[in-house]
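[audit] Reproducing an earlier prediction to check determinism. Same input, same settings, fresh worker. If the tokens differ from the archived copy the diff job will pick it up downstream; this log only records the rerun itself.
[audit] input (261 residues):
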Amino acid sequence: MQFDIFKKKRLSSLLMLAVLAAFTYGAMIITQYDVIKGFASIPKSIQWGLSSFYPTAASFENLPSILMQLGRTVLTSVAATTVAAVFALFFALFGSKVTKVNNFLSVLSRGTATVFRNIDVAAWALILLFSFGQSALTGYFALFFVSFGFLTRAFIETLDEVGGHSIEALRATGASYPSIIIQAILPSSTPQMMSWILFMVEMNIRSATLVGILTGTGIGFVFDLYYKSLDYNTASLVVITIVIVILILEYLSNYVRRVVL
């Protein structure tokens, strides 16, 4: 019996691998991708990167303007995340099974979170370009909508994990809905919510670079400008500063998580 089950699983795995291989081969034919040429170009790409993609003394003269745009990008990411967290908290309270007011608002909150979360930040940026054009506001709202959808879903799951015994005890004493939220829900769920907010800040700073290229703002626009003008040395300096800032923020985020949790 166990041998038959193992044999079926093995056949299913082999079938899935065969289907995946067929799709991969078909995609290579449609796109006219040559695997041999692709791997053969790797050494030349590395050689070009080492010879061209590095900062020089002249590129460091642009460092103040790069840091200024990077600072604006970080502040925009933090602002979009924190404001989205406030809206997400209210939607999560209505969407959670523990704190929901009624089924209609619960389904509406969960559905809204699903829609906003599943649309990529690049797609949001392209959609908002039609309304706001290439501006910082476009990038802000793109990050805001993605953060809102993700945090709403994360907050709902966090609230659902809160034990219902303390909530039932407060309801038995006649406590009002706001009292239950303030006294039982938020104190136990705030640390985990803070962790999700910090995670979203990190993600938004990474995404803001791509959004900046699409919206013509922030550090993404600076990188795109230098790269298209063939100033690869300054473009590499932009990449290095982005990586350093992300590593610093990740370290600070992990430290705050250890303190809070």
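[audit] rerun output stored. Observation attached for the diff report: Residues 121 and 166 are 38 Å apart (CA to CA).
[audit] end
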